[in-house]
Amino acid sequence: xxxxxxxxxxxxxxxxxxxxxxxxxxxxxxxxxxxxxxxxxxxxxxxxxxxxxxxxxxxxxxxxxxxxxxxxxxxxxxxxxxxxxxxxxxxxxxxxxxxxxxxxxxxxxxxxxxxxxxxxxxxxxxxxxxxxxxxxxxxx
Amino acid sequence: xxxxxxxxxxxxxxxxxxxxxxxxxxxxxxxxxxxxxxxxxxxxxxxxxxxxxxxxxxxxxxxxxxxxxxxxxxxxxxxxxxxxxxxxxxxxxxxxxxxxxxxxxxxxxxxxxxxxxxxxxxxxxxxxxxxxxxxxxxxxx
Lengths: 140, 141
Hints:
The structure holds 2 protein chains of 2 kinds.
Chain A: E1 9-12, E2 20-22, E3 29-31, H1 32-35, E4 39-44, E5 51-56, E6 60-65, E7 68-72, E8 84-86, E9 89-90, E10 98-102, E11 113-120, E12 130-136
Antiparallel strand pairs in A: 2-3, 4-5, 4-12, 6-7, 7-11, 8-12, 9-12, 10-11
Chain B: E1 4-7, E2 9-10, E3 28-30, E4 37-39, E5 47-52, E6 58-63, E7 65-72, E8 75-80, E9 90-95, E10 104-111, E11 115-122, E12 125-126, E13 132-137
Antiparallel strand pairs in B: 3-4, 5-6, 5-13, 7-8, 8-11, 9-13, 10-11, 11-12
């Protein structure tokens, strides 16, 4: 019979924010917390006021310029040096290729927000109807 | 009353590994810094694949991926085994160059709760690519 353990919070014994999960091959463990995506967003980027369609750990979105945005987190990262971002966008009205990248926009990367930009296959910054971004790293 | 589970390793009850452990969709984990919690299920990648888009498209390795259809040069639909709750999910991905020093771009085409389309470009033209890598984050149905 299947057993069900009901809890509200999963916490490590040795370190509260570090739990090992056995890997698929059963020969090693992987860190649960560090393996989780800490923030992701799907953005309507070509609306007059760009908005977040769905998200994790996203408090708000700021439209900083054509093809450039700032994602403000609900829970901050522990350091700006551990974030890794990646994403893909869809050009409005077509399926042309696009590139989404982290963009510090003249500032140092910060723990409370990150800038990102969307470029088309010609390298020009453009507003797109779908822009997606995912961030990994350690939360504070 | 709030309950707290203190453990170092999670395995299934048979002790053979973690592959059969189920986590409820509202579970949270204490963050690395201990100052916040993060939703475990929302933080999990829900689909990924390493695929070839040349000849007959195929997965080399994958998770929650049922099939690929070739819908045109450089365009492939990737179908999911378990569908999403909504189509507002996040796709990340990359590709290897087919030609030396080619400018790369990857785009999303039509998306639904059970499939998404990827389009691969080099130097502004669609091209079938042998090495493509994608992952999906979002909410499962």
